[in-house]
Design a protein that fits this description.
GO molecular function: mRNA binding
Number of strands: 0
Order of helices and strands: HHHHHHHHHHH
Keywords: Coiled coil
Distance between the termini: 56 Å
Protein name: Nuclear segregation protein BFR1
Organism: Candida viswanathii
Oligomer: single chain
Strand content: under 5%
Shape: elongated
GO cellular component, one term: endoplasmic reticulum
Length: 458
């Protein structure tokens, strides 16, 4: 018989909820990448073959060895001359720098002298001395007017003062003369650095090399062409290698992202599994708590009281179990509790072959005479039940009445304490449930704090 649509839908939804929500993560396809890289490697091999052919052609396109030796010798000499010319150029540059520095200093000193001499008509100390001597002769002659004599005396005083200032000018002039001599010496050195012989030798060697190159122009041109091709092939190979590195780098990035997604997916599934286990754990705790509360709600001493009723029925067949009290008086009102039905009677373990009590006074005893047993026996289960209640079992018929009395007293005591003990059991169960709820809330708070820390760390 085919299952109904309702049943199929229920089973599929149940399986979907129990199965983990798995996210498919596609692995990067490395097959196409390998094919592309292999193609590039084949291209590189082809380029290597072409390069080998070019090297072979270069090896064949050789100039006569004697010519090559002479050419190499001339090139070596040319390099030596170029080095000398370079050295001479550096020396000329150094000398020119020195000349410029000295010339700059000399011009500053000349400007200082010109600034001092521009205020008067004297160029040197000799001219000042000549003027002083001339004025002194005029004064000594005694033919001057008093005003002219005073004017000449004053002028002589000024000239003597000017003469002292011209002493520093003479020192500056001496330095200027020294600078001129230095510049002249440096210019002589500069002329010496222009080695005409080196230049002439350079031009001679260059002409010889040009002649050799012209005579072997075809071979050299072919070799240069082959060199250019080889350089181009090297560039192509480098481009191929760069492309391979780029492809591998891109694949590595994709694969790293793939691994990261796998790790994240595994972490997510682990968290879901952990959450599921935690939910199952909490569900079991709740079920256990409900079970404990339900068991605590069962009237206390129920098992002991039922056992006493069975024992009284065993020892006294005329005993009638009283009607069952309403559970509403002992059980608390709680709609969330599971309803548990208890059997009103239990099976009494008792042998029917013979009576354990001699001389029953009932009407049946008068109608039919019973055989008195030789030995007084008690069923093993009855002995165990009495032992559980801490009541001694009778070893002879005369002790049965005392056992029945003890059973009734025990029954009364248990029934009096039943309601109080039931309430105490319920309170203890409620306390355990409250502690369990507090523990759950603490765990939830710890988990939330851990999640917040992980988010802050990310």
């Amino acid at each position: 018989m085919a299952p109904s649509a309702t049943t199929a839908g229920t089973s599929s939804s149940a399986s979907a909820s129990s199965a983990p929500n798995r996210k498919f993560i596609k692995r990067p396809d490395d097959k196409a990448i390998k094919e592309e890289i292999d193609k590039l490697k084949n291209d590189i091999k082809k380029l290597d073959l072409t390069n080998n052919e070019i090297n072979a052609q270069i090896a064949k396109a050789q100039i006569d060895q004697k010519v090559m030796d002479k050419r190499n010798k001339l090139q070596a000499e040319l390099k030596t001359l170029i080095a000398k010319q370079s050295q001479g150029k550096n020396e000329r540059q150094t000398i020119n720098d020195q000349i410029k520095a000295i010339d700059s200093t000399m011009k500053k000193r000349i400007a200082e002298i010109q600034q001092q001499t521009s205020k008067n008509n004297f160029k040197n100390v000799a001219e000042i001395d000549a003027r002083i001597n001339s004025l002194d002769s005029l004064i000594d002659a005694g033919n001057l007017k008093l005003a002219d004599e005073r004017r000449y005396v004053k002028e002589m005083s000024s000239l003597r003062k000017l003469r002292k200032d011209f002493g520093s000018i003479e020192k500056t002039q001496a330095l200027i003369d020294q600078d001129k001599e230095k510049i002249a010496d440096l210019k002589k050195k500069l002329s010496a650095t222009h080695n005409k012989e080196v230049q002439a030798k350079f031009e001679e060697i260059q002409k010889e090399l040009d002649a050799i190159n012209d005579s072997n122009k075809t071979i050299i041109s072919k070799r240069n062409e082959l060199y250019d091709k080889r350089t181009e092939i090297k560039k192509e190979k480098d481009a191929k290698y760069d492309e391979i590195r780029k492809i591998r780098s891109e694949f590595d990035e994709k694969f790293a992202h793939f691994k990261q997604q796998l790790a994240e997916e595994k972490k997510r599934r682990d968290e879901e599994y952990k959450q599921k286990l935690e939910e199952e754990k909490q569900q079991k705790k709740r079920e256990r708590a409900e079970k404990e509360l339900a068991e605590a709600s069962i009237p206390a001493f129920t098992e002991e009281i039922n056992s006493i009723h069975n024992l009284l029925s065993y020892f006294d067949p005329s005993y009638v179990k009283p009607a069952k009290r309403s559970e509403a008086s002992t059980l608390p009102t709680n709609t969330n509790l599971r309803k548990i039905d208890f059997p009103e009677d239990v099976v009494i373990i008792k042998k029917e072959q013979e009576s354990f009590f001699a001389g029953s006074k009932g009407k049946k005893a008068k109608a039919k005479k019973q055989t008195k047993p030789k030995n007084f026996t008690v069923a093993p289960d009855v002995v165990v039940a009495l032992s559980d209640l801490a009541i001694p079992f009778p070893t002879k018929e005369e002790e049965v009445e005392e056992t029945v009395k003890t059973l009734k007293e025990t029954l009364t005591a248990l029934e009096e304490k039943q309601e109080e003990q039931t309430k105490a059991n319920i309170e203890r169960a409620k306390e355990r449930i409250a502690k369990l709820k507090d523990a759950e809330e603490d765990e939830d708070e710890e988990e939330q704090a851990e999640e917040e820390q992980e988010q802050d760390a990310e």
